[in-house]
Design goal:
Residues 79-270 form the Cation efflux protein transmembrane domain. The chain has three domains: 5-53; 70-269, Alpha-lytic protease prodomain-like (Up-down Bundle), CATH 1.20.1510; 276-350, Cation efflux protein, cytoplasmic domain (Alpha-Beta Plaits). It has eleven helices and three strands, in the order H-H-H-H-H-H-H-H-H-H-E-E-H-E. It is 65% helix and 9% strand.
Length: 363
């Protein structure tokens, strides 16, 4: 199948982007647009080729395939346990110095450690409940619900600390904060652990979408923790208002960031549709599944929590037997459900496309 005409045409459609310097791309908008267009098209074509050659090995949700290598598992486990250690260090630093900036990062690290443990439990629980008769559609949405709960808990704590920072700025106490070398060292160790986790996840981020998310999270934490250490020390040595002002800024950044996370989780729970590129890949995979498939009538892919449900309507010849139609549809369903990220696939077979759309209520 890899040497058929369709794949050869796809490979022949790959275009090398114009060889221009990064400086020229920044200055000339047309050159930059052309370069970005060809790059995106080549990525999409390569995904289609990858799906055609081995649909079970390719994750359609990402540009790179997920693997379960030793480094990926080690990075995930190291991030979970490293976050717990960071939380302990942040608790000591905040309790010793009573710095509002460190209290904000302490709250985030504690919520993050609890959420990592809770989400790991929910992932394992969801796998067990997927085979339960009480959860016929699967329990994958438990993870989204857990993310939302932890996000609201962290935003509530951050809001309290934001209010406390405003009260401190508006109050009459103008004394410098407490500076403790051991506390600063503990906070710096927490920053170093986050920096190590960010670098480690950055190295292997192309092999796992989960590591990509962990890298982004650890990278953002490095900025927040570093800024908190600076404002805490500056509030104790330079100006009293630097510490509460830094806590106010960090708290607002955390709230805004997690509002975006809650929004994305809500959209997935509500059935957000998949990207057009993914739908095109499903169409391409369906058309190549069997020569008996004459046409793809429609494809719907939408989130059911973190994973996707796929509905495919195909057209086959009316003179085919029920056994032939069933076998083709069943094999296509099994192939789609073997793709990582697809929870379930539904295949509907028809003999023409002039009918009304399926799954529509008539009033």
């Amino acid at each position: 199948m890899t040497n058929d005409i369709e794949l050869e045409r796809l490979r022949g459609s790959l275009v090398s982007p114009p060889s221009t310097s990064a400086w020229s791309q920044q200055l000339h908008r047309r050159i930059r647009r052309a370069h970005n267009y060809h790059t995106e098209q080549n990525l999409h074509i390569n995904r289609l080729i990858q799906v055609a050659e081995d649909p079970t090995a390719a994750r359609l949700l990402d540009d790179e395939p997920d693997t379960s290598s030793l480094h990926v598992k080690a990075a995930i486990n190291t991030s979970i346990y490293g976050t717990i250690l960071v939380a302990a260090l942040q608790i000591y630093a905040a309790a010793t110095t009573r710095s509002l900036s460190l209290f904000v990062t302490m709250a985030e690290s504690c919520c993050e450690a609890v959420s990592n443990i809770g989400l790991d439990y929910l992932h394992r629980k969801a796998r067990k409940l997927n085979h339960s008769t009480q959860w016929p559609a699967g329990a994958g949405r438990l993870c989204n619900a857990g993310n939302i709960c932890f996000a609201f808990a962290l935003m509530a704590v951050s809001l309290v600390l934001v209010v406390e920072s405003i009260r401190s700025l508006a109050g009459s106490d103008r004394e410098l904060g407490k500076f403790d070398v051991a506390a600063v060292i503990a906070a710096a160790c927490g920053f170093g652990i986050k920096l190590f986790l960010a670098v480690y996840c950055f190295i292997f981020r192309k092999h796992s979408s989960q590591l990509q998310m962990l890298w982004e999270d650890n990278r953002n934490d490095c900025f927040e923790y570093g800024f908190a250490i600076f404002t805490s020390a500056a509030g104790a040595k330079l100006k009293w208002w630097v510490d509460p002002a830094g806590a106010l800024l960090i708290g607002l950044v955390i709230i805004v960031t997690w509002i975006g996370t809650v929004r994305s989780e809500f959209l997935e729970l509500c059935g957000l549709g998949a990207s057009p590129n993914l739908v095109q890949e499903v169409v391409f995979l369906t058309l190549r599944h069997s020569d008996l498939i004459l046409q793809v009538d429609s494809v719907h892919a939408y989130h059911w929590g973190e994973e996707l449900f796929v509905e495919v309507d195909i057209v086959m010849a009316p003179e085919l037997s029920l056994r032939e139609v069933h076998d083709v549809a069943q094999e296509l369903q099994d192939k789609l459900e073997s793709v990582e990220g697809f929870a379930r696939a539904f295949v509907h077979v028809d003999y023409e496309t002039s009918h009304m759309p399926e799954h529509r209520k008539t009033r």
